[in-house]
Each structure stands twice: as C-alpha cells, then as structure tokens.
Specification:
Layout (H helix, E strand, L loop, with lengths): L7 E3 L3 E4 L2 H12 L4 H15 L9 E7 L4 E6 L9 H10 L31 H12 L9 H9 L1 E2 L2 H12 L7 H10 L11 E2 L2 H13 L2 H5 L1 H13 L5 H6 L3 E3 L2 E5 L2 E5 L6 H12 L8 H22 L10 H4 L2 H8 L20 E6 L5 E7 L47 E5 L2 E9 L3 H14 L5 H6 L3 E3 L4 E4 L5 H9 L3 E4 L8 E7 L5 E5 L6 E4 L1
Parallel strand pairs: 15-16
Antiparallel strand pairs: 1-18, 2-10, 2-19, 3-4, 3-11, 4-7, 5-6, 8-9, 9-12, 10-11, 12-13, 13-17, 14-15, 17-18
Helix pairs in contact: 1-2, 2-4, 2-5, 5-8, 12-13, 12-15, 12-16, 13-16, 13-18
C-alpha cells in the first residue's frame, strides 16, 4: 500500500527545491548564519549546475521576498536585443524553415513564428544580475561565499540525479538542431558521446565553474561589462546572433510591487507583468465568488478549470512589457470585472476569449529563516536548455525567452527591440491580515498559473498541509476543451468532467504537471515544508 507523505516541520529555517543537493546547499548556508536570501541565492546558483536542462547562468529570475515586515518583488528578466525586429524574424523564416512554435497557445502572424532555438529567441540573461541585486539589498554573507558549492559541483563533477537524467534524455531525444556553428558548443558541453548522462553518472562542467567564479568575484559585473560580455558579443557577431555588448551593458533588474488577489480571507501575491502571474490572480478572483465547499467534487473541479481558462485568455491578450505597453492590471483585477467573467461560466466546458476591461522548460525554490525572512524564487532558461546556444569556453546555455513574443504587430506583446517578452515563470506568496503565511510555487511553463490555483485551493479550500497539497493529482489545460489529468485523479471525477464536455485524457507522462514547493509558517513558530513528489528534490530544515 502507498503511505501518505508527511510535511517536514522545522523549528528554525527551511529550504525546498527540486534537487536535494541544491536544497542541502541552501540549508548549509542557513546553518552557518546566512539569512533566507543568502540560502535562496546559494540554492539558485547550485541549481544552474545540478539541473541544467531546466535553468542555467544564461537564464532569467523572478523573486518575492518577505523581509520581516513587507513584500518586495524583483523582476530580473532580460530584454530583447536592440536589433530584434519583426522584419528580422520574418526574413529569417523565409530564408530557412522554422518550425512554428507559439509559447502562448495562440495563432501567429502570416504563418511564421518565433523560432524556439538558435540566436533569434535569445534575450539578455537576467539571473546573474538578479543574484547580485537580491544580495545587495538583503544578503548578509559575502556574495562570493554563496557560490562555493556550485563551483565545486561544476569543477569536480557530481553524479546526475535520476529525475534530471530523465529530463536530460527527453530534451536530447527531441533535439532537432541543425549542424550550425551556434549549436556546436551545446553538443560538446551538454552531451556525453552524443547522449544524456545516465542516472548516477558523473558529469562535470569546468567552464561553468570558471564563469561562476568571475560572477562571484565581480558581483556579476564581468557578465555584463567584462570578459564574459565581450565573449558573448564576439560569438554572436561571428555566428549570426543579434545580442551585443551594448545590450548586456544596458541590462538592469527592476524592483516591483507584487500584485494580490484575495482568496478565502488570504492574499495571494504574484509579480506584475511581464510575467503570467496575473492569470492565476484572475482565476482566483473568479473562484473567490463561488462557494466551492457547497459543490460536488465534479463541479468544484469544473469551476477551477473554467476559471483558469478565463485567466489565461486575459493574460495572453494583455500581458506585455509594462515599460513598452499599457497593461490594464487594475481593471483586470477589479471585483466587478471578476463578477462579469464569473457569469460566463456554465455547467459545460467552454472556450473563452479575452475580455475587454476598462483601461485606466524552470526551477523553483523557497526558503525561510529563524528571523522570519522568506523567499519565493524561480529561474529558468525555458524549454529544456533554452536556445541551445552555448558560449564557447564558458559552459552555459542562453535562454530562448524571445519565444514568448507575438508576431502580430498590433498585439501589446509584439516582438521588438529592447523589450521584455511575456514570461511564464512566476513565484507566489501567501499572506493573511498583513502577516506572512509563506512562499509557494509550481514551475512548468503554461502549467504554472493553473498549478498555483490548484495548490492554493488545496491549501485554503481543502485545508491540506503543504505536502498533501503538492501530492494531490493535478490537471493541465492548454487550449480548447482538452484537459490532461494525472492517473491518480478519481475515475468518477474524470467521467463527470467528460459528461460536462471536457475532452479528458489521462496522461502517461508526469512531466507536464510541473514541480512545486511550499513553506508555510506555523502558528506557534517554525515552518511546515512540502516538496514535489514528482521529482528528485526535497524540503530540508533545521
């Protein structure tokens, strides 16, 4: 028989993430006197080495920090190169065949699309600057000390975990990269004789160790203005990329105020656009006006699915770089707008479109310390090794976040120069009456907002502890009436959803349902920790 997993209860502090060695790195930082931000940064840097299919030095980062009194948000995502235009993308699609990929689930203009691999979807990596900026504002230990474990794992190697090896193999099995110079270094660094490393097989990346040393020693200045920046500029110029040293020099993170929706007397916090956290808040606003406890199980699940569809419809229509387009955030979150959207839900599966409000591939981790500081942090290169462009001699892949742009010139998220694209990675945080409850997140592309909705509902509607909430079977919606569910979902629920018009498929592959973590503050002090059962990671505490 299967025994239920119990949450970890920790009196002083905790770390939860998707790789046990990274979680152990963060815990060691806490135990030697570091705070929750120090632990989060050490964990995040280690994850770039330990889980490279999901995140890397060349990726982006978002974070929410509870400093003991209030929340702070950091948008450490990068912008597109100054030379990226719609015309450049269309011309490239005419010169060579580009598989149409749409990260947002919508139609692309003129049959073309942002390519998933190569230089065109590359945006400026924001993670190194994000590490520095979080440390400058909140860190307590020396910045360079937080890189020790990551550098060691890269320099001396480590046995690859079973879950990472499986993800690595899936990524390489789907690789269709042409034999261009821009992909040659990827094959050298991230394959073993052309294949993925096997579970338990040792893997080293000494070039990444040296890159991390320079980031640690210079406070990330080397990455944006030094040797690494110059090497990126030269490699792009030599192999057809648009990224330049000027693009790197101009990069900067943005401190933002998180957005909230009230749900069951709690405040659920997400970061504002360009991230898709708004989709989760919109869905929760719809659901907060429904007494789910009074409904039968099929109706409860049906309402959640339909609310998520409404949230995504609006997010995909309106989320863009707020520095370059007006995003009607306040109008979308208005209770009256939520009521109007709620009225669209019937007892049948729908295919909602965006409303018209009045205008005015990822890793996740969370940490908490004995002083009450808590961090919700997520970073990613997107779609399994990102662009698969690897800087020779530096050991890291560049992200392909430009895939989130639209080619429709009338869309607020239209591709263009020096813009932040629609971003999938979103950290979450719960508070109640101004007091922190704790950080949470579910990574996995399009799964993330609906994972947030399912996790929050499991915590606040079903009253589950964080481990039980993460263990619960999940569902995944992408488009139309199609609904993918995990095998553990009750058969009667599946039949009931099908009777309401949902086209339900029971999945054989668990990866699409995302990986989550959560740390919740206990009323009497200390923390309850839950960690994703679908991956290798764990929640550690002391």
């Amino acid at each position: 028989m299967a025994y239920p997993r119990m949450p970890l209860f920790a009196p002083h502090g905790a770390v939860a993430t998707s790789h046990p060695l990274a979680a152990a790195t963060g815990l060691a930082v806490l135990r030697r006197g570091g705070n929750a931000v120090d632990a989060a940064l050490a964990t995040a840097v280690a994850l770039t080495v330990l889980q490279p299919p999901s995140n890397d030095i060349g990726g982006d980062l978002f974070a929410i920090v509870w400093d003991g009194e209030r929340l702070h948000g950091l948008n450490a995502s990068g912008r597109s190169p100054a030379g990226l235009t719609r015309e450049v993308v269309l011309a490239a699609s005419q010169r060579r065949e580009v598989a149409p990929v749409d990260a947002l689930g919508g139609a692309q203009s003129q049959g073309a699309a942002m390519p998933a691999r190569g230089w065109l979807p590359v945006t400026v990596p924001g993670a190194p600057a994000g590490w520095r900026d979080l440390h400058d504002r909140f860190g307590s230990l020396p910045f360079a000390d937080l890189f020790t474990d990551a550098v060691g794992y890269a320099e001396h190697g480590h046995p690859v975990s079973a879950g990472v090896a499986a993800a690595w193999a899936r990524a390489l099995a789907g690789a269709d990269d042409p034999p261009a110079e821009e992909f040659a270094e990827f094959r050298r660094v991230f394959t073993v004789d052309g294949r993925a490393p096997r579970p338990g097989e040792w893997w080293r990346n000494p070039d990444a160790a040296e890159t991390l040393r320079r980031i640690a020693a210079t406070g990330a200045a080397d990455f944006y203005r030094g040797r690494t920046a110059a090497a990126l500029d030269a490699h792009a110029a030599r192999t057809g990329g648009l990224l330049t040293g000027d693009d790197l020099t101009r990069h900067g993170s943005t401190w933002v105020d998180p957005l909230a929706a009230t749900y069951r007397g709690h405040q659920v916090w997400e970061l504002p656009p360009n991230g898709q956290g708004l989709a989760a808040l919109l869905a929760l606003n719809v659901l907060d006006g429904v007494d789910l406890a009074a409904l039968d199980p099929v109706s409860r699940l049906h309402w959640q699915v339909e609310a998520v569809k409404l949230g995504f419809a609006d997010a995909h229509a309106h989320v863009a770089d707020p520095e370059r387009a007006a995003v009607p955030t306040a109008a979308l979150l208005d209770p009256g707008y939520a009521a109007a959207r709620r009225a669209l839900v019937t007892d049948r599966a729908g295919t909602p479109s965006a409303g018209d409000p009045e205008r005015g591939g990822t890793v996740y981790l969370c940490t908490a310390d004995s002083a009450g500081m808590m961090v919700s942090l997520i970073q990613s290169t997107y779609l399994a090794f990102g662009s698969r462009v690897v800087l020779p001699g530096h050991g890291f892949a560049l992200q392909n976040r430009g895939l989130g742009f639209r080619l429709d010139p009338a869309h607020p998220n239209a591709v263009g120069p020096a813009k932040r694209p629609f971003h999938t990675i979103i950290p979450g945080f719960l508070t109640r009456d101004g007091a922190p409850v704790g950080p949470f997140g579910v990574m996995g592309g399009h799964m993330q907002p609906q994972g947030h909705v399912q996790l929050v509902s499991a915590l606040l509607d079903a009253g589950r502890d964080p481990q039980a909430a993460l263990d619960a079977p999940r569902w995944y919606w992408h488009a139309g009436r199609s609904l993918l569910v995990e095998p553990g979902l009750d058969g009667e629920l599946v039949a009931g959803l099908r009777a309401r018009g949902h086209e339900v498929t029971v999945a054989a592959e668990p990866a699409v349902f995302g990986y989550g973590q959560a740390i919740l503050r206990l009323p009497g002090g200390g923390y309850a920790v839950g960690s994703e059962p679908r991956v290798d990671g764990g929640g550690y505490g002391w």
